[in-house]
Every structure is written in C-alpha cells, then in structure tokens.
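Input record (one chain):
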Amino acid sequence: MTPSTKKRVLSGMRSTGKLHLGNYVGALENWVRMQDEYDCFFFIADWHALTTDYADTSRLKENSVEVLLDWLAAGLDPAKCVMFIQSHVPAHAELHLLLSMITPLGWLERVPTYKEQKENIKEKDLGTYGFLGYPVLQSADILIYKADVVPVGEDQVAHVELTREIARRFNGFYAGKREYVFPEPAALLTPAARLPGTDGRKMSKSYGNAVMLTDPEPVVRQKLKTMVTDPARVRRSDPGNPDVCPVGDLHKIFSTKETMAKVYEGCRSAGIGCIECKSWAADALVNILNPMQERRKKYEDDPRLAWDILEAGSARARGVAGTTMNEVRESMRLDYSSNYEPVKDSKK
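The corresponding structure, as predicted from the sequence alone:
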C-alpha cells in the first residue's frame, strides 16, 4: 500500500516542553501504531501555544524541540510519518485568516473548551481574539492537509465537528463546479485509559503530579512511593480494592496479567502492602520508559539530528499545504495573475 492510497491523519501537540505518561497514553501511543496504517501528518503547534502563553515566548523553540525528542523516543519514525512545526508552514496562517472571514462568531462562543478554559484559567488574560479564534486555526491545520480523520479524545470531538461545519460552509460559498474544495474530516475516537497522577487527579504538569517520559528510574520510584492509594486502606492489615485505587489504575494500563493477578489477590486479602504494590507498578513504568530514554539519548547527544527531521518534515508539509492553498485561492478568485481579465457582466 502506497501512502497515496492510505487515509490521511492530522494531529498535533502544543509546544509545552517535555511530555508525561498521560500524553503517551492519551495520544502518542496511538500515533505510533497509526503511522503504519495511515498517511500521518503530526505537527508541533507552536502558534497554538501562544493562545494562552503569549506573554512569555522565551522557551518556545526549546519546548518545541523537547516535544519532538519525546515523539522520536516513543517511536515515531520520519520514514513513516511527516513531523513538522506549525509556524514553519505559513500557509496555516493564510488559511486561518480566510476561514475566519466566514466563521460566525456564535460558532466559536459555543465551543465547550472555550468556556471551560475561560472559567478555569484565571491567572491569565484569555480575553483575546487569538484565544477565541483558536478553533478556526485548528480547522485550518486540519483542512489544509485535507485530512480524512483526526484522532481525538471525547473532549475534542466538538472541535472536529466545528471543522466539518467550516468546511461545509466554505464549500457552499466557493466550490463552484467542484464537488467540494475541502473534504469533511471524521473524528477518530482513540482508546485512551484515564491515567491518574500521583495525587489521584488526572495526570498534568500543571498539577505537579506527572511522571515524565524523561524521569530516570530513581525519580519514577520516588514519585510512586508518594502516590495516593485506596483511602479505605488505612492500616497495613486492612484489605484494599484495586478498582478504586490510583495505583491499581496504573497496573491496569501498564502491568502484565500475571502482575495484575498478584495485585488483586494480595491487595484484597491484605497479603501485600501498598509499598510493594507501588514497587510493582514502578517496575512496569520503568520497563516502558527505559527503551524510550535510550532512543531519546541519541538525539539529545546531537540535537541537530532532531531539528533536521523537523525541517525536512516542514518542507514536505509546505508542499502539500501549498497545493491546497492554490485550490483555495482559485476557488475564492484570489489567484490574481498578470493575464487579468475583468469578469463579464452576464446581464449586458
């Protein structure tokens, strides 16, 4: 199967620096599998990072490289997918501008994550045009590559639906004799277990409860020693329930069936203590992280290798995006040329 016969996937991550296990389980692990099945375009969304972190851009490039290093460490292969950085493909900005001209304000104001972040992120001024309009930039990111599917969690389905509405509206205005300019992408709900952090909440760097993909073994083990467990298990002799324990959730995602059997038997009978259970969970995490960190070291020792991959991917992305933008300009009658001829008034 050649890449041209595969369905195209588009997805990205913001330039937030080093990734954690939640990023891996929530998206990256699926991406690694998908690169063998789809024509994949994965981008580092440095412009999207500016929608909330516009006041300090001092670490933007460094954070972008850290994201790429973790992608490569997890197993993304430049021979199987296109990895690029958003700002190195200026056509994203042009399409964003054109799509913003036709996107009703009400569509943006009803996006669930817009309201949610406005309510939850109080320490930053999010009353900006860029923050309100970032879903249009997301739509441009997707449509400029004519992606067939977009892998998302349930909380992002509304963004893909907005992209479909924008594509439909654009096609209605400008497709002309074409059936359409933009295909309507489908949301591909990717399986992702809820990964708890060390405090039991969803794993997040902002909560300070994350296990990073770059954490060395001693750090992983120390973090898990402090992890919350079944609140009903107060004493060592109390039986516990792995199904209501954050450490049990880690075992379900990362441990073998044999280890899980020992966890269920030992915890429910009080045959093992939480320290031993946490140690087994740490073993499972280290088995996953060690190979990643070995792959990462190759690029850490020579960061230019990683940057070259990003530049080559960006060049490929510019080629695809450029072809799309030629169609967009033509359909919108923005493809001005030196052989200008006025449009004849059909009424004359």
